[in-house]
Amino acid sequence: MAMAMAYSRDGEGLSPAGRLFHSPSFNCYVIAILGCKTDINVEVIKEGLCHTLLKHPRFTSILVKKGRKTRWTQTTIDLDNHIIVPQIDSKPDYPDRFVEDYISNFTKTPLDISKPLWELHLLNIKTSTAESVGIFRIHHSLGDGTSLISFLIACTRKTSDPNALPTVPTTNKKNVSVSNARKCSTLVSFWMSVLSGVSLIWNTFVDVLFLVLTILFLKDTHTPLKGSNGVELNTKKFVHRTVSMDDIKLIKTEMKTTVNDVLLGLAQAGISRYLDREYGVEYKNDGTATKRKSNIPNNIRLRASILINIRPSPGIQDLADMMAEKGKAKWGNKMGYVTCPFNIVLHEDPLEYVRQAKATIDRKKHSLEAICSYACAKLVLYLFGAKVAGAITRRVLFHTTIAFSNVAGPVEEISFYGHPVAYIAPSVYGHPHALTIHFQSYANQMTISLAVDPTIIPNPYLLCDDLEESLKLICDNVVKKKHIAEII
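and the corresponding structure tokens:
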């Protein structure tokens, strides 16, 4: 079995990030929703977990305090205490809302720390997009998005080949600088390297300075998306929408950008549409027509906190390599935060959102902000403990508006212990944001998952509509410009 491990990490200390996620002000959980195309066979799932998940030391350990340190200590696990199959007496009138409310109730109660910190809920209920639904709830101290998606992939197989692990996208980095350097003289390439280094240092300095200012006093503008104090403790609502991955790839190819550029541009476009509706006013013109005028305030400061995987090997790693003692990519929480400004404005040309997103991401790529934020968090943890580090991290996130994340998934259809998967919709809660946007690719589709505080965003379906409509507008404009270019 691919998940079988030849060693145990019994007694492993809780990592710095793990300690942070157990601090009183930053107690975070990961939600992973799997829509299945068939009814769920509970016994088959249990048998599959015995051969995969139970081979993973982190999922079979509890937290035990030994002296001043808390350590992962392996224990005997009873699957019946972790697999929950609710009794649904009759078919609900609105099955999608039933599932959403069921998941929302997770945010009201914490996991029992006397047991391994995960559970799997299996709902044999037909929704608009699946025949049944499985929901993982996992404490964030067990691992970050990269670790957990790698783990999920190791628990699945290709639908087309039940014995083969899924394929995930890899990042192909072209060494453009080396290629260009060969065309230039040694002196020119030397000065290009110097300028690049100076730019890296300057960008990092500016980003870290703004991070410090954010900790101290720099807050986002209060908007209809901004959570109030204590938002991390409020009940959350989880909704998702599936869009075409082909549309995203088309935009990426024609605009010569990356998928991340497209998704960030899409998020800015959708949020701008949503806020335009919230701020917009309607008025009569000539007594007959009704026109709409944007009333979005000028100079809104709205930033997203983006999680960045800082492992030496980028992208999703095979779980066997991630768990290896000498592997480059380690299991756990290896991520830093960057703050990314959103340009909230209605552009006449929808492609401008993607262009601006590309410029922002290119600038952030040439900065060590994520590594510095991770290193600073570890230093504060070491010097002052999890309580202080958690309070500082919470303050950084609370002063921004949105949590934003994107994780690449399998490129072909997969099966979860023989159950074909219709969609994957991950999210997170317990952090101080009223809105979390997570993009998850799977086969030829992209799932947009929203976690919202319903007291701040009472109708998240409208935001889903805005994101979906924004993608359509951007894609239509790309096709239109492509068609014009072909004619010319």
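(Above: one complete record from the training split.) The radius of gyration is 23 Å.
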